Amino acid sequence: MKRWSPAERTTAIATLVLFISLFLPWFTYNYGLGSVSVDGLWHGWMYLVFILCLVILVYLVSRAGFSEMPFKLPIAGEQLLLVASVVNLVLTVLAFVDKPGGIGFSGIGWGFGAFVGLIAAIVAAVPLGMPALRARRK
Q1: Average pLDDT in the 16-31 region?
Q2: pTM, 2 dp
Q3: Nearest to 20 by CA among 100, 110, 116
Q4: Is residue 122 included in any domain, yes or no?
Q5: Are 72 and 119 in contact (CB under 8 A)?
Q6: How many domains does the chain have?
Q7: How far apart are CA 129 and CA 9, in angstroms?
Q8: How far apart are CA 39 and CA 105, in angstroms?
Q9: 2 or 128, which is more confident?
Q10: What is the span of the domain harbouring residue 66?
Q11: Is 1 within a domain?
């Protein structure tokens, strides 16, 4: 892990938290006698977030383990991390906003995993995205 930059460390930890949050309750519904919940993979597109989290983590672990990468990427590693974390952020925000039953349906609330996942997706993207935005403005 000493080979990682501080932004990559933050992205790795936040991506791992996002990955775990996909299996936590994201949406809950109380119906009097009990309650039901669904995890973050309820939305089909969140499987893409699942796969991108794995790609990010495999890339960072292999980068930490090898002095020379055993494979060649078509883009720079920083760009890969930035694109993957921004796609994760966009899909996670969509999943957070799009509650089951639609926006106007009452009774369905957010679970713990939805907030953890949203915060983790933001934290994973910001350290990589802010330098890219600053560079574009100059």
Answers
A1: 92
A2: 0.86
A3: 116
A4: yes
A5: no
A6: 1
A7: 14
A8: 18
A9: 128
A10: 6-137
A11: no
